[in-house]
Design brief:
The protein contains 4 helices and 27 strands. With 497 residues, the protein is mostly beta strands. The strands form 3 sheets. It has a 17-stranded antiparallel sheet that branches. The protein has an 8-stranded mixed sheet with strand order 2-3-4-5-10-11-8-9.
Length: 497
C-alpha cells in the first residue's frame, strides 16, 4: 500500500535555539537544537550532497537518556510514541522503517519490540527520525524512518568507556565502548551484557448474561542479552576508503506463568475454575556483516561513488509447555506443547554516484537490491493417552522469498533562503510465498515513489517546510501468513513479559 503525505509546518521557536553552519567542499550542515528539560532534540538539514529534514535525540553524555532502554529513548523523539510492548508509533502509525546505522536488519522486524525494550540506550550515540533520512534506502514504512546510531570516533582521536550497573531482582548491566580515529583509519566497537528482570500482572474481567469471567495472568522472567557491534574503516589513499561493519545480538530467557481463569454464574456461584500454566523459553539470535567502498574521483570535480554489500541473519526459537490444572486439587486436566521457529536471511547490495555541480546544485543516481529469504515453522502436540500426538490445527509451514531492485535519482537546489529537494524512486519487486494453504504464489509489482521537500528560512530561528512524499508499506511474513495462532485461546501474545 502506498502512503501519501503532505506536511506543512513551522519550526518551534525557543530561546535556547541555536544555529551552527559549516562548509567543506560540497557538504554543508545547518543544525537547530531545542532542549526540552534534560532531553536534547536536534533538527538538521544535511547534504552529502543531498540533505533531508531530520530530528535527533543525542544520547552520549546525557544522563537523562542513557539510563533508559532503547525503546524509552526512541520515545523522546517528537511525534513518536512507544507501546508497553516496545511497539513504535510515529505520527499515530506503527508502520515505521527502523534502521541500525543506516541499514535495515531482520532483527528489527516482527519482534523488534522485545529487542528495543531489552537493549540499553547506552550502546547508542544518537537516534534520528524523519520522512526520509537517506537518498539511497527504501522509502518503506508509511510514517517514516528511525535510525539507531552507535558510538563513533569521528569526533575523537580515541576513547574508551566502561559502564557497570546493578539493581534489585538480580539485574545487571555491563558495557564497554572504545574507538580510535587517525588520518589513516578508524575503529569503533562496543559490547553490552544485560541481565534484566521482567514481571507482568494482567487482569481482565468480562460480564455478560451468562455471568462474570475473571482472568489473572502472572509471569516473570530473567532475560539475558548480549549485544556487540564493530565499525572500522581504512583510507587506502586520498581517493579510496574501505569500511567494514558487524553486529551480534543474542537474547534468551525462561519464564513460568499462570493464567487463573474463573467463571461465576449470575447468582455468584462458581461455574468453572482452572489454572493454565505456561512454561516458556525464548531465544533470539542475529548477526550482520557488511562492507562499503567509497571513491572520490580525482578528475571529476566534487563527484564520488559508493558501493556496498550487507548480509544479516536472524533466528527466533520459542518453546511452550502448557498444563491445565484444577486449583484446589492440582489435578492435571490437559497438557500441550507448541514450538515456533523463524529464520531470516537478508542480502543488500547498493551503489550510488553523487556530484555537486556547483555550491547551489547537486544530484545523485543510485541502485539498491534487497533479497530476503524467510521461513516460519510451528508445531503443536497434545498429550493423549500418555503419547504426544500432533495437533494439525496448531502446525504451520510458511516460506517467503522476496526480491527488490530499486533505482533512485534526485537533485537538490539551494538559492538564498530556499532549499528544494526532488527525488524519484522506482522499484521492481517479486514476492513468492509457499505454505500448507497455498503453494508457490508469486506476485510482481512495480512502484514509483516521488519525494519533494521545499524549505524556506525566514529568519535565524524560523523555518517553513512544505513536503510531499509517497511511501510504501511492504508486508512482512507475519502479514502474509494466513495461519492464526490458536495454540492457546487464553494466552495473549502481547501483554506478557
Amino acid at each position: 500500500m502506498n502512503r501519501k503525505a503532505i506536511t506543512l509546518f513551522s519550526c518551534i521557536l525557543s530561546i535556547q535555539t541555536m544555529y551552527a553552519q559549516s562548509a567543506q567542499d560540497s557538504s554543508q550542515t545547518s543544525i537547530q537544537t531545542l532542549r526540552l528539560k534534560e532531553v536534547e532534540v536536534t533538527g538538521s538539514y544535511r547534504r552529502s550532497p543531498i540533505q533531508y529534514a531530520t530530528q535527533t535525540v543525542s544520547i552520549d553524555n546525557n544522563p537523562s537518556i542513557n539510563r533508559l532502554n532503547a525503546s524509552e529513548a526512541i520515545a523522546q523523539l517528537p511525534s513518536v510514541n512507544i507501546g508497553i510492548e516496545g511497539d513504535i508509533r510515529r505520527r499515530g502509525n506503527t508502520d515505521v522503517n527502523l534502521l541500525f546505522n543506516g541499514i535495515p536488519l531482520a532483527l528489527f522486524e516482527e519482534n523488534r519490540g522485545d529487542v528495543l525494550i531489552l537493549l540499553p540506550s547506552s550502546t547508542l550515540n544518537s537516534i534520528e527520525t524523519g520522512d526520509n533520512l537517506y537518498d539511497y534506502t527504501f522509502v518503506d514504512g508509511g510514517s517514516g524512518v528511525i535510525n539507531l546510531r552507535p558510538f563513533s570516533s569521528n569526533k575523537k582521536e580515541k576513547y574508551l568507556q566502561l559502564t557497570g550497573a546493578m539493581g534489585a531482582h538480580e539485574r545487571y548491566n555491563a558495557d564497554i565502548k572504545g574507538g580510535i580515529s587517525t588520518k589513516k583509519f578508524f575503529f569503533d566497537a562496543g559490547y553490552n551484557f544485560k541481565r534484566e528482570y521482567r514481571h507482568r500482572t494482567f487482569r481482565k474481567e468480562t460480564i455478560n448474561n451468562t455471568g462474570t469471567a475473571y482472568q489473572n495472568n502472572n509471569a516473570s522472567a530473567h532475560p539475558n542479552i548480549n549485544f556487540g557491534y564493530v565499525n572500522t574503516g581504512v583510507n587506502i589513499n586520498a581517493n579510496n576508503q574501505l569500511v567494514f561493519n558487524g553486529l551480534l545480538f543474542d537474547m534468551n530467557y525462561d519464564r513460568l506463568g499462570n493464567i487463573d481463569n474463573k467463571k461465576l454464574k449470575p447468582d455468584g456461584s462458581v461455574a468453572n475454575h482452572m489454572i493454565r500454566q505456561r512454561d516458556n523459553s525464548q531465544k533470539q539470535k542475529a548477526w550482520s556483516a557488511g562492507t562499503e567502498w567509497k571513491h572520490t574521483f580525482a578528475k571529476l570535480k566534487n563527484a564520488s561513488l559508493q558501493a556496498g554489500f550487507n548480509y544479516d541473519n536472524y533466528a527466533y526459537d520459542e518453546d511452550n509447555y502448557f498444563k491445565n490444572k484444577k486449583p484446589d486439587t492440582e489435578q492435571i486436566l490437559a497438557q500441550e506443547e507448541l514450538f515456533i521457529n523463524q529464520e531470516k536471511h537478508q542480502y543488500i547490495a547498493q551503489a550510488r554516484f553523487e556530484q555537486a555541480l556547483n555550491p547551489l546544485l547537486s544530484y545523485y543516481v543510485g541502485y539498491t537490491g534487497r533479497f530476503k529469504r524467510d521461513a516460519y515453522r510451528a508445531n503443536g502436540y497434545n498429550l493423549v493417552n500418555d503419547k504426544w500426538t500432533p495437533n494439525l490445527a496448531k502446525c504451520d509451514t510458511f516460506d517467503l522469498n522476496s526480491n527488490i531492485h530499486l533505482v533512485s535519482i534526485g537533485t537538490q537546489l539551494s538559492k538564498g533562503n530556499f532549499l528544494a529537494n526532488i527525488s524519484l524512486q522506482g522499484d521492481i519487486s517479486s514476492r513468492t510465498t509457499d505454505s500448507k494453504h497455498q503453494h508457490e504464489e508469486t506476485k510482481h509489482l512495480f512502484t514509483l515513489l516521488p519525494q519533494v521537500n521545499i524549505t524556506y528560512s525566514s529568519s535565524k530561528n524560523t523555518t517553513w517546510n512544505v513536503s510531499y512524499s509517497q511511501r510504501i508499506n511492504r508486508p512482512l511474513l507475519r502479514d502474509l501468513n494466513p495461519y492464526i495462532d490458536t495454540s492457546d485461546p487464553t494466552f495473549t501474545r502481547k501483554g506478557n513479559p
